Amino acid sequence: MKKNKLAGTPLVIIATAFWATGGIFITQVIKESNLTPINLAFWRDISTFAVLLLGVSILRPTLLRVKKNDLPWLIGMGIISIGLFHVLWNTSIMINGMAVATVLQGYSPVFVTIIARIVWKERLSPFKVFAIILSTIGTILIVNVEGFGGIKITPLGLLIGLISAFAYGSVSLFGKKLSGNYSPWTILTYAFGIGTLTLLPLQLLSPSASLLPVILPFTELIFITTLSGYLLYFAGLQKLPASVASILSTAEVPFAAFMAYLFMGEELTGWQIVGAFFVVGGVILLSLKNNKANKNLRAE
Q1: Running DSSP on this structure, what letter comes out for residue 125?
Q2: Between 20 and 30 A from 204 (CA), which of 57, 142, 147, 244?
Q3: 86 and 199 in contact (C-beta within 8 Å)?
Q4: Rounded distance, CA 277 to CA 253, Å?
Q5: pLDDT by residue (tens digit) across 167-211?
Q6: At what angle do helices 270-299 and 2-19 cross, to 10 degrees?
Q7: What are the distances in angstroms from CA 233 to CA 83, 137, 172, 212, 255?
């Protein structure tokens, strides 16, 4: 039991490292093809669903069995956390730009922590509040927003960005409800299947596009970013409170900044480095606090 609880934190952090590779593959796919963000979101979801369904059907088909009373949670996760989030995230980037969209996305742990307090009765300790504030400040610094006075955010852009952050954070809320009863493979198979159906009408209205010119980076996006990231995250979520997992997921920001510098030639400024330390520092402090809480619980 001790090993299982302590394993949750590194699993989530490693998952965020896999997620952080997404920017590299997504940028390459869109730049080298005629795919729109909506096209890419749909093909990403349906391809991930196909791989999951095939793997589960061959290796352990019993994992596809779910209880009827859990279907609303799976449907909600598929629509909001997968399908709707991908549309909102892409739209937020187009309207607000990458920097502002990322800043707004950094507020997802705030939504998760507050809702987890209301729904799951998770304790909203001063330490969690501090971790949220530290992570948010770090996120703002890393995206290199040079003074809020120069940013022009329309009411529509702000609304879309905040709803996107909520949709992103909802994966922890839905996942926490389901992860105690089902394998990550089960949850993700249903979620990506429902997410695919959610995006299907938008895909039918979008111009046709081909994946052939970008099949390699697209395949890397599916197996490295999506499958590896989500499976590790849900494995960690089985051992952690939803709010803690969501705050830990902000480690994706410094990982993404480092990868952008290493693989895409984007420079890291001094303030971005400071921001990375803020986010990582908040993650480390939260991890230490969570491990201490686990020890105290076992002692009782």
Answers
A1: -
A2: 57
A3: yes
A4: 11
A5: 988 888 888 888 888 999 999 999 999 999 999 998 888 777 788
A6: 160
A7: 18, 23, 9, 30, 15
Residue 151 and residue 98 in contact, taking contact as beta carbons nearer than 8 Å: no
**pTM recorded for the entire structure:** 0.81
User: What range defines the domain where residue 246 resides?
Assistant: 2-299
Rounded to whole angstroms, the Cα distance separating 172 from 110 reads 12
217: exposed, middle or buried (Cβ count in 10 Å: 0-12, 13-18, 19+):
buried
Amino acid at 221: L
Count: domains in the chain: 1
**Secondary structure, 3-state, 71-112:** HHHHHHHHHHHHHHHHHHHHHHHHHHCHHHHHHHHCCHHHHH
Question: Which tokens sit at 133?
Answer: 């504030």
Q: What is the DSSP letter of 206?
A: S
Asked if residues 153 and 268 have their Cβ atoms less than 8 Å apart, the reply is no
pLDDT tens sequence across 2-25: 455 567 889 999 999 998 888 888
Task: Report yes or no: 162 and 102 within 8 Å, Cβ to Cβ.
Answer: no
Measured distance CA(51)–CA(212) in Å, rounded: 18
CA atoms within 13 A on the CB side of 113: 21
